[in-house]
Amino acid sequence: MVRDIFDKDIHIETDRLKLRPLTMSDTWDIFEIFSDKQVMKYYDLLPFESFERAKEQVEFFIKGFEQKTMLRWGIELKDSGKLIGTCGFFNFNEDALKAELGYELNSSYHGKGLMSEALDAVLEFIFRETDINRVEAFAEPPNIASQKVLKKLGFVKEGTLRRYERCRGELIDIIIYGLLRTDRE
Fold it and tell me: What domains can be seen in the chain, in order of their start residue?
């Protein structure tokens, strides 16, 4: 069952990363990430202007885990212990056996393969530890870097949802990507 995942140990290690639950002590690093205009360029939130807003975001991620609606990992560098991003699943649908993937990374660490490394590990985890059959991810058409990460991980571009959501004050197109359990076998 999908909800059983919240009762498991979600700590994951890769070659360069530790993926772990977020804590309130991560607030400064979350502020650094979410206040960066480059990181937030294709995000559905505006860049944070206050530490308080970052605190609210961390509380939101923690509460999502506690209420079993969101599974969000902090992405920490093994060598320094610095939190450089987050990734995880939300919008779980028990009937359709699917979830949505979301992620962001401190812009100082873009282009180093770190997000691909983190997402590969959490995808392995979700397919191993649950009966999820499908993971969806959404990207804005100009967000080429995110689309490259998804394709590298085996996601299939399924189409463009025209004027799908309001973001930064305007209706925007969104590209939907899907990854099936069988795509990883």
Answer: 3-132 (3.40.630.30)
